[in-house]
Design brief:
It is a single chain. The chain has 198 residues and is of the alpha/beta class. It has a single domain, classed as Rossmann fold (3-Layer(aba) Sandwich), CATH 3.40.50. It is built from 7 helices and 7 strands, in the order H-E-H-E-H-E-H-E-H-E-H-E-H-E. Strands 3-2-1-4-5-7-6 form a 7-stranded mixed β-sheet. Helix 5 links the parallel strand 4 and strand 5. Helix 1 packs parallel to helix 2. The longest helix is centred in the middle third of the chain and has 17 residues. Belongs to the methyltransferase superfamily. METTL23 family. It catalyses: L-arginyl-[protein] + 2 S-adenosyl-L-methionine = N(omega),N(omega)-dimethyl-L-arginyl-[protein] + 2 S-adenosyl-L-homocysteine + 2 H(+). Its main location: cytoplasm. This is Histone-arginine methyltransferase METTL23.
Length: 198
């Protein structure tokens, strides 16, 4: 659902990804980080506060989400963090002119199957430009029928599952959701399946 209100909340996946960043905070100073679909930007803000050079982005079609990114930066004393309009699956001048990056962040991007390929197309483009970069992502399992495995294979990407207990995110107060029913949050790191020279 392309609705700007979805970018106005801190969803459980963002909290889990922020916990992962906090657990790895000593590796973040100086890293170049791009958060896509940032919304209120909790993971990006945590990365910036830990010393990473962060760029926040959300859809250029959702100006309210872009404003939400800017507001989060101002509230967290990060007025110089750039905010870009980047729409998944669209090659734009902003996407083409991005500086090199080390880490791409995305929380709860995989919520609508019609967007999965556009998201992974954008990730593939970024990883091709930055072959040693990684995409750190958390997602909520909403349907057993939804999978990105075939798309990962199609786009020559591989994923590594990161157990939540390995970074202290398996606590009920952290990864729980107030939405009805039981919702499982997962984390994975996506990278190119084959880098050049291997």
């Amino acid at each position: 659902v392309l609705d700007s209100r979805y970018g106005m909340y801190v969803w459980p996946c963002a909290v889990v990804l922020a916990q992962y960043l906090w657990a790895h905070r000593r590796s973040l100073p100086g890293k170049r980080v791009l958060e896509i679909g940032a919304g209120v930007s909790l993971p990006g803000v945590v990365a910036a506060r830990c010393g990473a050079q962060v760029i926040l982005s959300d859809s250029e079609e959702l100006p309210q989400c872009l404003q939400s990114c800017r507001s989060s930066c101002l509230m967290n004393r990060l007025p110089h963090v750039p905010v870009l309009g980047l729409t998944w699956g669209r090659v734009s001048p902003e996407l083409l002119s991005l500086a090199p990056i080390d880490i791409i962040l995305g929380s709860d991007l995989f919520f609508d199957p019609k967007d999965f390929e556009d998201i992974l197309t954008t990730i593939y483009f970024l990883l091709e430009k930055n072959p040693h970069a990684q995409f750190w992502t958390t997602y909520q399992v909403r349907s057993a029928d939804w999978s990105i495995e075939a798309l990962l294979y199609k786009w020559n990407l591989k994923s590594i599952h990161v157990p939540l207990h390995s970074f202290g995110a398996d606590k009920e107060h952290l990864a729980s959701s107030s939405m009805p029913g039981r919702h499982t949050i997962e984390m994975m790191i996506i990278s190119l399946a084959q880098s050049e020279g291997t």
